[in-house]
Design a protein that fits this description.
Blueprint (H helix, E strand, L loop, with lengths): L1 H20 L3 E3 L5 E5 L2 E4 H13 L7 E5 L5 H12 L10 H5 L1 H4 L10 H6 L8 E4 L8 H4 L4 E6 L2 H13 L11 H9 L8 H14 L4 E5 H6 L1 H11 L6 H5 L2 H8 L2 H5 L2 H5 L26 H15 L19 H7 L6 H51 L13
Parallel strand pairs: 4-5, 4-6, 6-7
Antiparallel strand pairs: 1-2, 2-3
Helix pairs in contact: 1-2, 12-14
Protein name: Sulfotransferase
GO molecular function, one term: sulfotransferase activity
Family: Belongs to the sulfotransferase 1 family.
């Protein structure tokens, strides 16, 4: 049995190696080599896994597939979904999430399941099984798309996603790959040269699927979830078929789950502090800030405008940026546009600071101007006084009856 498995692995390795030799390749924004596989730029480490996923994964009717492009809220979505689904199985205080971490309890189909036998082993997992994937929608196996298995997709403001991705890549030690500067990485990003990019095609694939089958694909926006975690946790629970009861809501369970799965809470997990994530990367590297609008601290207005123009150009026909009906997955008109532009406005504190500085310079200018005018006025009076004094002395010299007791007054 062991020799058969080894032979199968060797064949898979040869197959993926031969495939890579015939695929277009480019350096991506993370400094790593990407291959154009089935229309998307995929990292070498994931292509073999994607092939196995497509060939051997047999979806079950109760499966939950959590999909995203990297650094779009993947870790957060895994934590929330796992906790919601398993809330009756584990108390929050004893959840395996704390000791195994989001990536430990929800495996990646491309990275964590590396052989046909591993896929078969997943059949022993309790229902509903939960898996994560970065695969684009067209690359999902037919068993996922054609079954009753449900998909939850999370997207994020592309500029925030870019900064999170770039920060992640520069913090990972590399032997043969070099880190790109922010400017070079941004240029690659705008060309779609990032993991599973272009982001506009990745996003639109799941968006269209959510419009066609809203009962099967739930399309979430990171910014909406951050703004109203309780509402979207409730929505997520209902979508997966495990809605919160009135008693659970009264006990504040939704809020407790939100706190347990927050970025700050996840940073304190034992699994985060001491464990590793996919590909042996330290688990702590998968959690940075999770803030909305953090890209403003790194990108220039022209960079943000470039991404906005890309969104308008690439997604104008998809309906994402202009969902007029507002009925599909809670989307409203202009929400997608807001996700890509609302965070590009100058923060209020910056406006106040600039205004105060400007007022200070204006006050200083007026004070200097007043001083100058006063000096000119004083000089004019002094010259007039001296001229008057000279005339008086001249008069004194020419008039013997002039009284020296008469005071000199400034005119």
């Amino acid at each position: 049995m062991g020799s058969v498995e080894i032979t199968a692995k060797e064949e898979q390795r040869d197959e993926s190696r031969e495939l890579l030799q015939n695929l277009p390749a480019e350096i991506g924004m993370g400094g790593n080599l990407l291959y154009l596989y089935q229309g998307f730029w995929c990292p070498q480490v994931s292509i073999k896994g994607m092939m196995l996923f497509q060939q051997h994964f047999k979806a079950q009717e109760t499966d939950l597939i959590l999909a995203s492009i990297p650094k779009s809220g993947t870790t957060w979505l895994k934590a929330l979904t796992y906790t919601i689904v398993n809330r009756s199985r584990y108390s929050l205080e004893k959840s395996p999430l704390l000791t195994s971490g989001p990536h430990g309890v929800v495996p990646f189909l491309e990275f964590d399941i590396s052989s046909e036998n591993h896929f078969q082993e997943q059949n022993r997992l309790p229902n509903p099984r939960i898996f994560g994937t970065h695969s684009p929608y067209p690359a999902l196996p037919c068993s996922v798309k054609d079954s009753a298995a449900k998909i939850v997709y999370v997207c994020r403001n592309p500029v925030d996603m870019f900064i999170s991705y770039w920060k992640f890549s520069v913090n990972i030690p590399k032997e043969e790959e070099k880190h790109l500067s922010l400017e070079d990485a941004f240029d690659k990003f705008c060309q779609g040269l990032h993991g599973y990019g272009p982001f506009w095609d990745h996003l639109s694939g799941y968006w269209k699927a959510s419009l066609e089958r809203p009962d099967k694909v739930l399309f979430l926006k990171y910014e909406d979830m951050k703004k109203n975690a309780v509402l979207y946790n409730r929505k997520l629970a209902s979508f997966v078929g495990l809605p919160f009861s009135m008693d659970e809501e009264k006990r504040g369970l939704i809020e407790e789950i939100s706190r347990l799965c927050s970025v700050e809470s996840m940073k304190s997990y034992e699994a985060t502090r001491t464990g590793t994530g996919p590909l042996g990367i330290p688990a702590s590297a998968f959690l940075r800030k999770g803030e909305v609008g953090d890209s403003l601290n790194y990108l220039t207005p022209s960079m943000v405008s470039r991404v906005e123009n890309l969104i308008r150009e690439k997604l104008q026909d998809s309906g994402i940026a202009d969902d007029s009906s507002g009925a599909k997955n809670g989307a409203r008109k202009s929400e997608m546009h807001a996700a890509s532009t609302s965070n590009t406005e100058i923060p209020k504190i910056a406006i106040i600071f600039v205004s105060m500085v400007a007022m200070g310079f204006l006050a200083l200018f007026l004070f200097k101007f007043w001083q100058k005018k006063k000096r000119e006025e004083l000089h004019a009076r002094l010259f007039k006084f001296l001229d008057h004094e000279q005339k008086q002395l001249h008069f004194l010299a020419s008039n013997e009856n002039f009284s020296t007791n008469e005071p000199f007054n400034l005119p």
